[in-house]
Amino acid sequence: MKALLAILLLALCTAQSGAAEHVVLYARLLEDVTADLTDGSRWAMEKGDCFPVVAYKEGRTKLILRLAGTNFVVASEHAAVVNEKETPAAIKRYRGTLQVYIEGFSARWKAKAEAGAKQ
User: What angle do CA 86, 92, 96 make, to 5 degrees?
Assistant: First the structure.
């Protein structure tokens, strides 16, 4: 019996699993939204902007979306999950928004550094 259990355990551990596929959902904003990011900043998101979905919250009434290394929450009526055909366009839109966020973040950081150097 132990030998049979060991063989089954070995077979399960070495079997290839097709369920290990990494799936990322994207959501598109349905209207302009002002979001409070977890890094403490506040951003005006535009209708049509796309973001990766991190999780659903409160019985799917809210979505947690990601922008770079920070997250924000929107009501589910303000965003819709993008279907598989539209995902490449959503990724392209997200990369554009991400670039603007990074440039704005670095400009603020540089301005703070220069203001500190003047003192």
Answer: 140
pLDDT tens digits for 48-103?
999 999 999 988 899 999 998 899 999 999 999 999 999 999 999 999 999 998 88
Structural domain including 72 reads: 23-118
* 11 belongs to a structural domain: no
Q: Is residue 15 part of a domain?
A: no
Is the residue at 1 inside a domain?
A: no
Tell me, what amino acid is at 52? P
DSSP per-residue letters across 25-73? -EEEESS-EEEE-TTS-EEEEPTT-EEEEEEEETTTTEEEEEETTEEEE
In a domain, 4, yes or no: no
